[in-house]
Amino acid sequence: MAGNNHTDVAEFVLQSFSGDTQLQALLLTFFLLLYLMALAGNALIIMAISLNPGLHTPMYFFLTNLALLDIVCTSTVLPKLLEGLVAKGSTISYRGCMAQLFFLTWFLGAELLLLTAMAYDRYVAICCPLHYSTKMSQPVCILLAGSVWVISAVSTSVHTGLMAQLHFCGPNQIRHFLCEVPTLLLLSCSSTTLNNIMIVIADVYFGVVNFLLTMVSYSFIIASILRIRSMEGKRRAFSTCSSHLLVVCMYYSTVIYTYILPGSGSSMENGKVVALLYTAVSPTLNPLIYSLRNKDVKVALRKVFPCIK
Protein backbone atom coordinates (compact mmCIF):
# COMPACT_ATOMS: atom_id res chain seq x y z
CA MET A 1 0.00 0.00 0.00
CA ALA A 2 2.65 2.44 -1.04
CA GLY A 3 0.66 5.58 -1.42
CA ASN A 4 2.79 8.24 0.28
CA ASN A 5 4.56 9.12 -2.98
CA HIS A 6 1.21 10.28 -4.35
CA THR A 7 0.03 12.50 -1.51
CA ASP A 8 0.95 15.64 0.38
CA VAL A 9 -1.29 14.62 3.27
CA ALA A 10 0.48 12.68 6.03
CA GLU A 11 -2.59 12.19 8.18
CA PHE A 12 -6.33 12.72 8.18
CA VAL A 13 -8.52 14.24 10.87
CA LEU A 14 -11.53 12.10 11.69
CA GLN A 15 -14.70 13.88 12.72
CA SER A 16 -16.17 12.94 16.07
CA PHE A 17 -19.46 11.06 16.08
CA SER A 18 -21.08 14.00 17.85
CA GLY A 19 -19.96 17.55 18.48
CA ASP A 20 -21.90 17.76 21.73
CA THR A 21 -19.28 17.46 24.48
CA GLN A 22 -21.98 16.65 27.04
CA LEU A 23 -22.77 13.46 25.16
CA GLN A 24 -19.16 12.26 24.94
CA ALA A 25 -19.22 10.14 28.12
CA LEU A 26 -22.63 8.68 27.27
CA LEU A 27 -21.58 7.83 23.71
CA LEU A 28 -18.30 6.35 24.93
CA THR A 29 -20.15 4.05 27.32
CA PHE A 30 -22.72 3.10 24.70
CA PHE A 31 -20.18 2.30 21.95
CA LEU A 32 -17.91 0.42 24.34
CA LEU A 33 -20.87 -1.66 25.45
CA LEU A 34 -21.81 -2.35 21.82
CA TYR A 35 -18.25 -3.41 21.02
CA LEU A 36 -17.98 -5.75 24.00
CA MET A 37 -21.39 -7.26 23.25
CA ALA A 38 -20.46 -7.81 19.60
CA LEU A 39 -17.19 -9.50 20.54
CA ALA A 40 -18.75 -11.65 23.26
CA GLY A 41 -21.87 -12.61 21.31
CA ASN A 42 -20.06 -13.65 18.15
CA ALA A 43 -17.30 -15.41 20.07
CA LEU A 44 -19.97 -17.43 21.90
CA ILE A 45 -21.58 -18.40 18.59
CA ILE A 46 -18.24 -19.58 17.19
CA MET A 47 -17.40 -21.47 20.38
CA ALA A 48 -20.79 -23.14 20.67
CA ILE A 49 -20.76 -24.33 17.06
CA SER A 50 -17.12 -25.43 17.14
CA LEU A 51 -17.52 -27.48 20.33
CA ASN A 52 -20.82 -29.14 19.34
CA PRO A 53 -20.42 -31.84 16.64
CA GLY A 54 -24.17 -31.80 16.07
CA LEU A 55 -23.85 -28.28 14.63
CA HIS A 56 -21.14 -29.16 12.13
CA THR A 57 -23.52 -28.66 9.22
CA PRO A 58 -23.42 -26.26 6.24
CA MET A 59 -25.85 -23.78 7.82
CA TYR A 60 -23.78 -23.44 10.99
CA PHE A 61 -20.52 -23.46 9.03
CA PHE A 62 -21.69 -20.32 7.25
CA LEU A 63 -22.99 -18.87 10.53
CA THR A 64 -19.49 -19.30 11.98
CA ASN A 65 -18.06 -17.37 9.05
CA LEU A 66 -20.65 -14.63 9.61
CA ALA A 67 -19.73 -14.38 13.29
CA LEU A 68 -16.03 -14.14 12.40
CA LEU A 69 -16.76 -11.40 9.87
CA ASP A 70 -18.76 -9.48 12.46
CA ILE A 71 -15.86 -9.63 14.92
CA VAL A 72 -13.22 -8.38 12.49
CA CYS A 73 -15.54 -5.77 10.93
CA THR A 74 -16.47 -4.10 14.21
CA SER A 75 -12.84 -4.33 15.39
CA THR A 76 -11.77 -2.40 12.31
CA VAL A 77 -13.90 0.62 13.23
CA LEU A 78 -14.94 0.83 16.88
CA PRO A 79 -11.52 1.02 18.58
CA LYS A 80 -10.69 4.15 16.55
CA LEU A 81 -14.13 5.59 17.25
CA LEU A 82 -13.66 5.00 20.99
CA GLU A 83 -10.24 6.64 20.83
CA GLY A 84 -11.77 9.72 19.23
CA LEU A 85 -14.38 9.98 21.99
CA VAL A 86 -11.75 9.68 24.71
CA ALA A 87 -9.37 12.19 23.11
CA LYS A 88 -12.15 14.58 21.98
CA GLY A 89 -11.04 14.13 18.40
CA SER A 90 -8.86 11.73 16.45
CA THR A 91 -6.30 11.68 13.68
CA ILE A 92 -5.31 8.72 11.54
CA SER A 93 -2.17 8.38 9.44
CA TYR A 94 -2.41 8.07 5.68
CA ARG A 95 -1.31 4.43 5.81
CA GLY A 96 -3.66 3.77 8.73
CA CYS A 97 -6.54 5.25 6.76
CA MET A 98 -5.74 3.11 3.73
CA ALA A 99 -5.49 0.04 5.97
CA GLN A 100 -8.87 0.75 7.58
CA LEU A 101 -10.42 1.30 4.17
CA PHE A 102 -8.93 -1.96 2.87
CA PHE A 103 -10.14 -4.16 5.74
CA LEU A 104 -13.53 -2.49 6.14
CA THR A 105 -14.31 -2.78 2.41
CA TRP A 106 -13.06 -6.38 2.45
CA PHE A 107 -15.26 -7.45 5.35
CA LEU A 108 -18.36 -5.56 4.16
CA GLY A 109 -18.12 -7.11 0.70
CA ALA A 110 -17.49 -10.56 2.15
CA GLU A 111 -20.57 -10.28 4.35
CA LEU A 112 -22.77 -9.44 1.37
CA LEU A 113 -21.44 -12.46 -0.52
CA LEU A 114 -21.81 -14.67 2.54
CA LEU A 115 -25.45 -13.70 2.99
CA THR A 116 -26.03 -14.82 -0.61
CA ALA A 117 -24.30 -18.14 0.07
CA MET A 118 -26.43 -18.61 3.19
CA ALA A 119 -29.59 -17.91 1.17
CA TYR A 120 -28.52 -20.55 -1.37
CA ASP A 121 -27.92 -23.03 1.46
CA ARG A 122 -31.46 -22.47 2.78
CA TYR A 123 -32.86 -22.75 -0.78
CA VAL A 124 -31.24 -26.16 -1.28
CA ALA A 125 -32.30 -27.33 2.19
CA ILE A 126 -35.98 -26.45 1.70
CA CYS A 127 -36.51 -26.74 -2.06
CA CYS A 128 -34.16 -29.67 -2.81
CA PRO A 129 -33.92 -31.60 0.49
CA LEU A 130 -33.17 -34.96 -1.17
CA HIS A 131 -30.07 -33.52 -2.87
CA TYR A 132 -28.93 -31.39 0.08
CA SER A 133 -26.06 -33.63 1.19
CA THR A 134 -24.69 -33.68 -2.36
CA LYS A 135 -25.16 -30.03 -3.33
CA MET A 136 -23.95 -28.75 0.04
CA SER A 137 -21.16 -31.22 0.71
CA GLN A 138 -18.15 -30.17 2.76
CA PRO A 139 -15.95 -29.40 -0.30
CA VAL A 140 -18.74 -27.26 -1.79
CA CYS A 141 -19.18 -25.32 1.46
CA ILE A 142 -15.44 -24.73 1.76
CA LEU A 143 -15.33 -23.58 -1.86
CA LEU A 144 -18.23 -21.16 -1.32
CA ALA A 145 -16.77 -19.74 1.88
CA GLY A 146 -13.29 -19.45 0.36
CA SER A 147 -14.73 -17.68 -2.67
CA VAL A 148 -16.50 -15.21 -0.39
CA TRP A 149 -13.23 -14.17 1.27
CA VAL A 150 -11.09 -14.22 -1.89
CA ILE A 151 -13.46 -12.35 -4.23
CA SER A 152 -14.00 -9.61 -1.68
CA ALA A 153 -10.24 -9.39 -1.03
CA VAL A 154 -9.55 -8.94 -4.75
CA SER A 155 -12.22 -6.24 -4.98
CA THR A 156 -10.94 -4.27 -2.01
CA SER A 157 -7.38 -4.57 -3.31
CA VAL A 158 -8.49 -2.87 -6.53
CA HIS A 159 -10.31 -0.07 -4.70
CA THR A 160 -7.48 0.51 -2.22
CA GLY A 161 -4.88 0.44 -4.99
CA LEU A 162 -6.80 3.03 -7.00
CA MET A 163 -7.27 5.15 -3.88
CA ALA A 164 -3.51 5.02 -3.21
CA GLN A 165 -2.88 6.54 -6.65
CA LEU A 166 -4.97 9.61 -5.89
CA HIS A 167 -3.41 12.92 -4.87
CA PHE A 168 -4.56 14.45 -1.57
CA CYS A 169 -3.41 18.05 -1.19
CA GLY A 170 -5.84 19.17 1.51
CA PRO A 171 -8.09 19.68 3.29
CA ASN A 172 -7.43 16.56 5.34
CA GLN A 173 -10.57 16.61 7.48
CA ILE A 174 -12.77 13.57 6.85
CA ARG A 175 -16.43 14.27 7.53
CA HIS A 176 -16.83 10.88 9.12
CA PHE A 177 -15.51 8.82 12.04
CA LEU A 178 -13.94 6.25 9.68
CA CYS A 179 -12.14 5.99 6.34
CA GLU A 180 -14.49 4.89 3.57
CA VAL A 181 -14.29 5.16 -0.19
CA PRO A 182 -17.12 7.74 -0.65
CA THR A 183 -15.77 10.15 1.98
CA LEU A 184 -12.14 9.93 0.85
CA LEU A 185 -13.02 10.60 -2.79
CA LEU A 186 -14.46 13.95 -1.72
CA LEU A 187 -11.00 15.01 -0.51
CA SER A 188 -9.02 14.01 -3.58
CA CYS A 189 -7.35 16.63 -5.78
CA SER A 190 -6.99 14.10 -8.61
CA SER A 191 -9.51 12.84 -11.10
CA THR A 192 -11.67 10.15 -9.54
CA THR A 193 -13.33 8.96 -12.76
CA LEU A 194 -11.75 5.49 -12.70
CA ASN A 195 -12.50 5.12 -9.00
CA ASN A 196 -16.15 6.00 -9.59
CA ILE A 197 -16.39 3.53 -12.47
CA MET A 198 -15.01 0.71 -10.31
CA ILE A 199 -17.34 1.71 -7.48
CA VAL A 200 -20.34 1.41 -9.80
CA ILE A 201 -19.16 -2.03 -10.97
CA ALA A 202 -18.67 -3.16 -7.37
CA ASP A 203 -22.04 -1.73 -6.33
CA VAL A 204 -23.79 -3.58 -9.13
CA TYR A 205 -22.09 -6.88 -8.30
CA PHE A 206 -21.98 -6.82 -4.50
CA GLY A 207 -25.15 -4.83 -3.94
CA VAL A 208 -27.62 -5.33 -6.78
CA VAL A 209 -26.69 -8.79 -8.15
CA ASN A 210 -26.25 -10.45 -4.77
CA PHE A 211 -29.39 -8.83 -3.41
CA LEU A 212 -31.39 -10.10 -6.40
CA LEU A 213 -29.90 -13.59 -6.04
CA THR A 214 -30.84 -13.60 -2.36
CA MET A 215 -34.37 -12.44 -3.09
CA VAL A 216 -34.78 -15.03 -5.87
CA SER A 217 -33.67 -17.74 -3.45
CA TYR A 218 -36.20 -16.61 -0.90
CA SER A 219 -38.98 -16.35 -3.45
CA PHE A 220 -38.49 -20.06 -4.19
CA ILE A 221 -38.19 -20.79 -0.47
CA ILE A 222 -41.44 -18.99 0.37
CA ALA A 223 -43.21 -20.74 -2.52
CA SER A 224 -42.02 -24.11 -1.22
CA ILE A 225 -43.08 -23.29 2.33
CA LEU A 226 -46.57 -22.31 1.19
CA ARG A 227 -46.92 -25.72 -0.49
CA ILE A 228 -46.30 -27.50 2.80
CA ARG A 229 -49.65 -28.82 4.04
CA SER A 230 -49.11 -28.97 7.80
CA MET A 231 -48.93 -25.75 9.80
CA GLU A 232 -46.18 -27.23 11.96
CA GLY A 233 -44.11 -27.96 8.86
CA LYS A 234 -44.59 -24.41 7.62
CA ARG A 235 -43.63 -23.00 11.01
CA ARG A 236 -40.44 -25.06 11.23
CA ALA A 237 -39.39 -24.25 7.68
CA PHE A 238 -40.02 -20.55 8.13
CA SER A 239 -38.20 -20.43 11.48
CA THR A 240 -34.99 -21.63 9.82
CA CYS A 241 -35.11 -18.76 7.32
CA SER A 242 -36.69 -15.83 9.15
CA SER A 243 -33.54 -14.96 11.12
CA HIS A 244 -31.40 -14.87 8.01
CA LEU A 245 -33.97 -12.85 6.08
CA LEU A 246 -34.11 -10.29 8.91
CA VAL A 247 -30.31 -9.92 8.87
CA VAL A 248 -30.32 -9.57 5.06
CA CYS A 249 -32.89 -6.76 5.10
CA MET A 250 -31.16 -4.90 7.91
CA TYR A 251 -27.69 -5.19 6.40
CA TYR A 252 -28.53 -4.39 2.79
CA SER A 253 -30.60 -1.34 3.70
CA THR A 254 -27.65 0.28 5.51
CA VAL A 255 -24.94 -0.64 3.00
CA ILE A 256 -27.04 0.46 0.02
CA TYR A 257 -27.65 3.83 1.68
CA THR A 258 -23.91 4.38 2.12
CA TYR A 259 -22.40 2.97 -1.07
CA ILE A 260 -25.13 3.06 -3.70
CA LEU A 261 -26.87 6.27 -2.61
CA PRO A 262 -23.97 8.40 -1.32
CA GLY A 263 -24.55 12.10 -0.77
CA SER A 264 -23.35 15.16 1.04
CA GLY A 265 -24.57 17.80 3.43
CA SER A 266 -27.11 16.60 5.94
CA SER A 267 -26.97 13.11 4.46
CA MET A 268 -23.35 12.89 5.63
CA GLU A 269 -24.55 13.28 9.21
CA ASN A 270 -27.14 10.59 8.61
CA GLY A 271 -24.36 8.50 7.10
CA LYS A 272 -22.62 8.37 10.47
CA VAL A 273 -25.64 6.75 12.04
CA VAL A 274 -26.04 4.35 9.11
CA ALA A 275 -22.34 3.41 9.23
CA LEU A 276 -22.72 2.70 12.93
CA LEU A 277 -25.59 0.33 12.13
CA TYR A 278 -23.56 -1.96 9.88
CA THR A 279 -20.24 -1.69 11.77
CA ALA A 280 -21.50 -1.95 15.36
CA VAL A 281 -25.25 -2.52 15.76
CA SER A 282 -25.58 -5.30 13.18
CA PRO A 283 -22.60 -7.32 14.54
CA THR A 284 -24.12 -6.96 18.00
CA LEU A 285 -27.63 -7.99 16.97
CA ASN A 286 -26.70 -10.90 14.68
CA PRO A 287 -25.78 -13.31 17.52
CA LEU A 288 -28.97 -12.37 19.37
CA ILE A 289 -31.12 -12.83 16.27
CA TYR A 290 -29.67 -16.23 15.47
CA SER A 291 -29.41 -17.57 19.01
CA LEU A 292 -32.77 -16.36 20.31
CA ARG A 293 -34.64 -17.81 17.32
CA ASN A 294 -32.59 -21.02 17.05
CA LYS A 295 -33.17 -23.83 19.53
CA ASP A 296 -30.06 -25.75 18.40
CA VAL A 297 -27.77 -22.80 19.11
CA LYS A 298 -29.37 -22.21 22.51
CA VAL A 299 -28.93 -25.88 23.43
CA ALA A 300 -25.28 -25.76 22.31
CA LEU A 301 -24.67 -22.63 24.36
CA ARG A 302 -26.15 -24.30 27.46
CA LYS A 303 -23.81 -27.27 26.96
CA VAL A 304 -20.77 -25.00 26.80
CA PHE A 305 -22.03 -22.68 29.55
CA PRO A 306 -24.42 -24.55 31.88
CA CYS A 307 -25.15 -21.33 33.75
CA ILE A 308 -26.96 -19.93 30.67
CA LYS A 309 -30.72 -20.41 30.96
Automatic annotation (TrEMBL):
Record's GO cellular component terms: plasma membrane
Molecular function (Gene Ontology), one example:
G protein-coupled receptor activity
Any single Pfam family the record assigns to this protein: 7tm_4
Sorted UniProt keywords: Cell membrane, G-protein coupled receptor, Membrane, Olfaction, Receptor, Sensory transduction, Transducer, Transmembrane, Transmembrane helix
| Stretches that traverse the bilayer | 25-47, 59-78, 98-120, 140-158, 204-226, 238-261, 273-292
What compartments host this protein? Cell membrane
**Would I find Ribonucleoprotein among this entry's keywords?**
no
Q: Among its keywords, does the record have Secreted?
A: no
Which part of the chain is the G-protein coupled receptors family 1 profile domain? 41-290
InterPro entries for the chain: GPCR_Rhodpsn (IPR000276), GPCR_Rhodpsn_7TM (IPR017452), Olfact_rcpt (IPR000725), Olfactory_GPCR (IPR050516)
The membrane topology term of the UniProt record is: Multi-pass membrane protein
Q: Which CDD domains match?
A: 7tmA_OR13-like
Question: Which function does this protein serve?
Answer: Possible taste receptor.
| Family statement drawn from the similarity comment of this UniProt entry | Belongs to the G-protein coupled receptor 1 family.
The protein's name: Olfactory receptor
Origin species: Heterocephalus glaber (Naked mole rat)
From which lineage does this chain's organism come? Eukaryota, Metazoa, Chordata, Craniata, Vertebrata
In the UniProt record, the gene name given for this protein reads LOC101724604
